Amino acid sequence: MSAKIKKYPGEAIKTEDLRKGRVPVIRWKPKAKYAWSVGVAMSRFLKELKNGRIIARKCRKCGRILVPPRMFCELCFRSTDEWVYVKDTGVVNTYSISYLAADARRLKEPIIVAVIELDGASKGIGIFHHLGEVKKEAVKFGMKVKAVWKPPEERTGAITDIKYFKPAEV
Amino acid sequence: MSLEKIGDPHKTKHWMGHMECDYSYTHGIAGEKFFKELKENARIMGTKCKKCGFIYVLPRLFCERCFERLDEWVEASKRGEVHTYTVAHIDVDGNKLKEPIIWAMVKIDKVHGGMVHRLGEVDPKDVKIGMRVEAVFKDKKERTGSMLDIKYFKPVG
Amino acid sequence: MFVKKRVAVVGAGLTLFRRNLKETGRELAYEATKMALDSAGLNLKDIECVTLGTAPDAFDGIHMKGENLLDGAGAWRKPYSRVFVGGGTGVFVANSGWWHVASGLFDTCLVVAEEKMSSCFPHPQYAFTTIFDPIVDRPLGMNLVWIFALEMHRYMHVHGIKKEQIALVSVKNKRNALDHPCAQLPAKITVEDVLNSEVMVWPVQRLDISPTSDGAAALVLASEDVAKKITDDPVWIDGVGWCIDSTYWTNRDLYYPEYVECAARMAYKMAGIKNPPKEIDVAEPYDPFDYKELHHMEGLLLCGKGEAPKLTEEGVTQRDGDLPINPSGGLLGVGNPIAAAGLMKICEIFWQLRGEAGKRQVPGDPRTGLAQAWGDLMQYGSVIVMRS
Amino acid sequence: MRDVAIVGVGCTGFKSITPDVSYKELMFEAAVSAYEDAGVDPRRDIDSFICCSEDYWEGFSIFDEFVPDQLGAVLRHLFTVSADGLYGLATAYMLIRTGAFDTIAVEAHSKASDILTFTDIVAFALDPIFNRPLGGHPFYVAGLEMNRYLYETKATKEQCAHVVVKNKKNALDNPYAAHGTKITVDDVLASEPFFYPLSRLDTSPLADGCVVMVLASESVARKLTDTPVWVRGVGWNSDTPWLETRDWGRAIHTELAAKMAYKMAGIKNPRKEICLAEIDDMFSYKELQNIEALEFCRRGEAGKLTEDGVTERAGDLPVNPSGGLLGVGYSLEASGLQKVLEVTLQLRSEAGKRQVPDAETGLAQVWRGIPTASGAVAVLSNKSR
Question: Which distant-in-sequence residues (6+ apart) come within 8 Å of C232 by Cβ?
Fold first, then answer.
């Protein structure tokens, strides 16, 4: 059948024609605003970030220490049991070098982002963050890194209270 | 359930955010012709299904009932009757409107369907289901090819 | 697993895939649906129910867009619902069609997928910023390509895979797409072209990525009794599978898609497949990025972990190879209107197993095919196994 | 044919605001109680999980990403149905009927209090080309529908107000309900006109909450519980999404969904065979319109039945004994599942002060809200076939 069909439907238009208003369109920007309840686990996590610390939850059944923290262990399906501080150091599990900003703008100086397995959390438990004070050529898998915090007065209780992770002195 | 809860109301925390992108919707195949006629000639166009005879206003590319492709265009009347109406007293933010808005489903004469639009030049108390109304267009130079090219429907004798 | 009723695909339809199409979403859905009905020789009144797959509302720019699209999907005054598993939706929607019929509730079902990403303007990338956790991810300026680059890099690192090997996928799929009448980015390119293309987020370069697209696809499904009255060449859905991994993507090792394996095992068990590489004749794994084809071949157990690049180098995955992979041209070549792209893969397997794929036909009378899609935060696998 | 039963239910209860928990913690709470009620371990015993949600209710694109962990579904089989939880129940029913699945969990929730711009989001569901550019508060669609319904059936605003009074009163006996209270018909009629003839108190207030249910095939259900509630029929349907060609006076989707569910359940005379019904009442007139669409009476009679007290809890046909959406709260995609929950509790004789005596067969029905013309129906019974 596929071979028998001569013309497939669809009327293509050029992006440039859309940009220049040559194709009639209706424009809209929705108002879609939210104030998400942060909840038990993440409220504490954000509060501790403001204090310059990273906190995790531990499940006593499987023994895992979980960041970001949650009030449930997804593998054992039970409540997690206790709060545990983990270190603000860790190793690079994987990284990428971005020439694209979040809004798809082209960057001259790339942003380096990584998954960082935190010391004190269970094996493989990491968080996402930026790397800084490092040349892109110097980043390596397994590299030791350490959080660079904003000064206490600038912290707001957000993941951005950590500016980035930089190579740790060995 | 969680082994810990938040008991102190000061400790409940919210995180603000949004999902607001810009959108640009093409009129589509049927819509493009409809809006062109509305804008340039102040005509209300519909499409007719050859199979079931249904005349769609607003026009469609296809018959939703029998799935025929609709390529027969017909000009519809500017007049119709109020099939149902409502008087809105609040705006989208829930604030009381100074002037209430009268919304109506207007069944256009001799076709199926019609338009959901505003009524004008009438007091809310005088609106009745079954009332005859007519589309009032903006001036040609103000028309942009949108539903707003019709200002509202007004009563006719 | 005992399944009550065997379910067949009896018709398929597809629109062009393009960066921008003029049709509205429902008009696109109509075009694909109409073609699928026509190809099965059926009318809308022959259809008992409809299932729709479409990815985030933030593309088309309509809240509850399944409701808006329903007339285009042929669902006027019929049982109709929408399933949604991110990028996995295109294959998953056929799985949902399968259970509508396999349950015995319905004898015929339309399966429709639509995406009009171009409504999000100037670029659909903006919509992607809303797929991330607002507390731990969005404040860091998340970009979709960042996280896939993280996954690709991890995969390359664990197995010692080179970019040259991965680029072969892009070269193959874009070339396969030259034979696809709906394709958006068919091209004859070389490995060097891929390696020299603009670096977006290392290791991801411009030619490693599929485009954003508008498009729609549709299938007609029928129960065994009804299918045999409609066609002499039904293609059977013998296995369906789906699986999701944890939301906490930074707590997982991204080098291997365990959730794809879990979904594949579900589908293989249902289809009675014991040795996938031997029993699968043609496969359409999800390839929004070139490395994903390799990643998914491994997750689908079509080869061992880390072995897919070698198979690709050896030409095994070419259309005339032992295990043709993405003979359609895949998302890299045909385009990526998310849910429609996944369903396009099932259309391709349908045509391949009926011997109707024309210039794209893989040789040797393929009897068993597979399609797979991937979605959410690198955590969803959906799989379908089909036989002629 | 393979029978399907509800074997476990869990619910957080409904509240106008839940600032102390995240949506994940809310879902976890309902899931734990549902699995406990069913006596199952989700990590082992549930063959597939179904989550029911729409992205803009949550503030996330692809909300499916954010659900597996708190439901026990990591590296297991889960998917999202973009619809009310009642569609999720129908989907679970189909999956079990295929023979390939024995146990399914269905989840639906509302964290409506997280949404700051609720009406703007409803407006974002209007057709972007033909309806949305006209602006306005989108509930005008309900005003249009109510006016036509009253016109065609000769039902009155007073009769609609009776629905509000009844449902808010019923909710007083429901510990899960957020909006129970004692008011009079005059209170409803005196409330501000929003979209004439629709007034403020004709409209369901929003609520947060989560419902999780476990469904099982007959053989598994009999092992798990002594009080299975059998799903005897499901139906769902849609009229046109176009405002311009839909039937403004009737709920066509309810009529067609009911026909499907009744046929499956073998129900010939709903009024005689169904003991209680949880019916969509997002707006007061919807309850009347849907009672008629469900064939409990002829068109134009539902208002009179309500005035006569037939739909009170002690009446001949109790409608919304839970308090309905007007009394419990409109909980987005959890609305239908809240209705199934009430019917299940009634059929298990666990409805406390709300218990309808000798209830054997019940019905739940839901509408997907403005601007849709879609909805679903389920017929449940505590007697097996």
Answer: none
List CB contacts (< 8 A) between C26 and chain B. 28
Q: Domain for residue D50, yes or no? A: yes
> pLDDT tens for residues D330-367?
999 999 999 999 999 999 999 999 999 999 999 999 99
* C121: chain B residues, CB-CB within 8 Å: 22-24
Round the average pLDDT of chain B to a whole number and report it: 96
Which other chains touch chain B, taking contact as 3+ CB pairs less than 8 Å apart?
A, C, D
Asked if A119 and A90 touch (Cβ cutoff 8 Å), the reply is yes
So what's the ipTM on this one? 0.97
Cβ within 8 Å, pair D143-B87: yes
In order, the DSSP letters of A62-92 are T--EESS--SEETTTTEE--EEEEE-SEEEE
Using an 8 Å Cβ cutoff, are D73 and C244 in contact?
Answer: yes
CB contact under 8 A, B116 and D131: yes
- Partner-chain residue, chosen from C30, C119, C126, that has the shortest CB–CB distance to B25: C119
Question: Does residue D293 sit within a domain?
Answer: no
CB-nearest to A11 from C21, C123, C126 is: C21
CATH at residue D103: 3.40.47.10
Quick one: how far is CA D92 from the chain centroid? 16
In this complex, the residue of B19, B61, B69 whose CB is nearest that of residue C130 is B19
CATH topology assigned to domain C7-122+211-387: Peroxisomal Thiolase; Chain A, domain 1 (3.40.47)
Give the number of B-D residue pairs with CB atoms closer than 8 Å.
Answer: 127
- What CA–CA distance (Å, rounded) separates C79 from D9? 26
β-pairing, D103-110 vs D48-52, is parallel
Residue C91 tokens, joined: 């294959």
C-beta atoms of C16 and A10 within 8 A: yes
Q: What is the pLDDT of residues C127-171, one digit of tens each?
A: 888 999 999 999 998 888 999 999 999 999 999 999 999 999 999
Residues C45 and C16 sit within 8 Å (Cβ to Cβ): no
Residue of C nearest to B16 (CA): C134
Select from C22, C44, C135 the Cβ nearest to the Cβ of B29: C22
**From the list A33, A39, A74, which residue is nearest D25 (CB)?**
A39
Q: Which CATH number describes the domain made up of B25-155? A: 2.40.50.140
B23/C120 Cβ within 8 A: yes
Q: What's the Cα-to-Cα distance from A25 to each of B21, C23, C186, rounded to whole Å?
A: 16, 12, 29
CA distance A58 to chain B (A): 12
Q: Is A33 on the interface with D (CB under 8 A)?
A: yes
User: What stretches of chain C show up as alpha helix (H) in DSSP?
Assistant: 25-40, 57-60, 65-68, 89-102, 125-128, 144-159, 163-176, 191-196, 224-230, 258-271, 276-279, 290-299, 308-313, 330-334, 338-354
Structural domain containing residue D97: 4-116+206-224
In terms of Cβ atoms closer than 10 Å to its own Cβ (0-12, 13-18, 19+), residue D336 is buried
Under 8 Å between Cβ of C158 and C255: yes
Asked whether the predicted pLDDT for residue A102 surpasses 90, the reply is no
Q: How many domains does chain D have?
A: 1
Residue A21 CA, distance from chain mean position: 37
Contact C251 A113 (CB under 8 A): no
Band (pLDDT 50/70/90 cuts) for residue A169 is: confident
Q: Is C130 on the interface with B (CB under 8 A)?
A: yes
Distance CA D91, CA D47 (A): 13
pLDDT recorded at residue C123: 85
Please state, in angstroms and as integers, the Cα–Cα distance from residue C138 to each residue in A163, C57, C129, D56, following that order.
14, 19, 7, 17
Q: What pLDDT is stored for residue C142 in this prediction?
A: 87
How confident is the model over A158-167, as a mean pLDDT? 98
Residues of B in contact with D122 (CB under 8 A): none
Residue C14 Cα, gap to closest chain D Cα (Å): 23
**Chain C residues with CB inside 8 Å of A28's CB?**
61
